[in-house]
Design a protein that fits this description.
Chain A: It is found in: Mitochondrion outer membrane. Chain A: Belongs to the metaxin family. Chain A: Pfam families: GST_C_6, Tom37. The complex is a heterodimer of chains A (292) and B (263). Chain A is α+β, with helices and mostly antiparallel strands. Chain A has a domain of 158 residues: Glutathione S-transferase Yfyf (Class Pi), Chain A, domain 2, CATH 1.20.1050. Helices cover 55% and strands 6% of the residues of chain A. Chain A contains 10 helices and 4 strands; from the N terminus they run H-E-E-E-H-H-H-H-H-H-H-H-H-E. In chain A, helix 6 packs parallel to helix 8 and helix 7 crosses helix 8. The radius of gyration of chain A is 18 Å and the shape is globular. The N and C termini of chain A lie close together (11 Å). With 263 residues, chain B is α+β, with helices and mostly antiparallel strands. Chain B has 2 domains: 78 residues, Glutaredoxin, CATH 3.40.30; 154 residues, Glutathione S-transferase Yfyf (Class Pi), Chain A, domain 2, CATH 1.20.1050.10. In chain B, strands 2-1-3-4 form a 4-stranded mixed beta sheet, covered by helices on one side. Chain B is globular. Classes of the chains: A alpha+beta (292), B alpha+beta (263). The interface between A and B is medium-sized, with 29 and 31 residues.
Amino acid sequence: PPLAILQAYAKFSGAPLTVNAINNSWRAPKGEIPILISEDTAISQPAKILNYLRKQKYNADYELSAKQGADTLAYIALLEEKLLPALLHTFWVEAENYCSVTKPWFASRIPFPLSLFLPGKMSREALNRILLTRGGPPLYSLTEVEAQIYRDAKECLNLLSKRLGTSQFFFGNTPSTLDAFVFGFLAPVYKVCFPRGQLQEHLKQLPNLCRFCDDILSCYFRLTVSGHSPAGQDTVDANLQKLTQLVNKESNLIEKMDDNLRKSPQHPPRKLTTLKLAAGGEESSPLNRLSP
Amino acid sequence: AAEPWPENAALYQQLKEEQILLSDNASSLAVQAFLQMCNLPVRVVCRANAEYMSPSGKVPFIHVGNQVVSELGPIVQFVKAKGHSLSDGLDEVQKAEMKAYMELVNNMLLTAELYLQWCDDVTVEEITHPRYGSPYPWPLNRILSYQKQWEIRRKMKAIGWAGKSLEQVLEDVDQCCQALSQRLGTQPYFFNKQPTELDALVFGHLFTILTTQLTSDELSEKVKNYNNLVAFCRRIEQQYFEGHDKDNSSSATSRSAKRSLLR
């Protein structure tokens, strides 16, 4: 999610961004990816990166009212509290998913010997986070916690669907930070086929959210929306291929973007140093690092 | 569960004068405000071991009939099952918004309060440790206190707040207050004319922040920057808490902001 959020935001606001797939997580300061490298500053953590982009005048929220800005914060909090635990669980904790999809995928993108222990570490951290924030009485067993977090996630998806209604984006006809965040959270759920994918099944019952993801993918990421891949190894390959395509995108995609994209009236877009977004893996790869 | 609300419903929290901490006081006040708004009488009972009596380990909890429910979320559900609700008049989109804002408050304000209480060394030394274990003899008081601190710090680390500095936390609080202030605007309540559980929650936290004396005023200053939020708190205080014979933040607090809850 963090990487998908940032790319979506960059697209919406017109920031020229190149995605460099670095496959060496060691180089990242403090091991946090994705990292934004601009001139000589390196910034990690999505929220800080978003702030930086805004300060550089790439702002997708210029036309939002104060209240809409406040709503954005609130909905992001909702996503982090209610949807994130289930997402983490689906990707990193659910044994079948982790062993058959997440781990091989992630491990294939990072060099040996990191691939030996980094996925395991991330899996443990995910479980830790879930248990610490959502476990505890009166939920005493892991299955109870799991049941609760999926209930919460499904409710969250329902709420998002109600909020989106029939509009194209969350605040009218142009995308904003909130759209980037929602897309960042939903896209992995929507696109990655897991053996145990109850979240995906639930999401598919909410057609406006699916349409939302498809719209963004096709408008801003120039992907044709493909149908379901057959289950099994083929699925993994198909996903990998699709994601490799995403990663190989060039920044000239920016020029072809919709006119709807917000440019701040007083600050013409800067054609300056290309901002490099360093990522450890493909774009909507599972959570690289948990940063709030 | 269609029994009517009994007369002897009780809300349990820690000892008010000596023991209760900022975050727990905020949560407790939020529930009290909510019940007041629903016109459901409840008396506040202070017990040193309230935390341990609670089914989820968190305060406050209410004891109604033969059921025990803790924390605002479940209490709202419970009250709804009894036929009282503040948010029935909202449409689906508004309900979604309300839930989102409640998460925002929990995510930012509550976490910031916990951070300040348990991760800021000065506050921990001077306020939290002495208060938290105060009803118990030494060494139990220190042990309980350290245990809780360790638990909270673990949680902070898991969600990524452990690396934050106090300034960053205060900035987050400011951002949250700004969002709340913008959403409230000039309305009397968040969803215009009628208060909802969101109003109760926001009141609980903001009022507590405004009236609790800590080692420094920075936290309450952040809230005071937003006039409509301060006015909001005063309004709810006047409407729901004054003129009641209750053992909580009643007219003793009066108009001024500072009331010392702590030694």
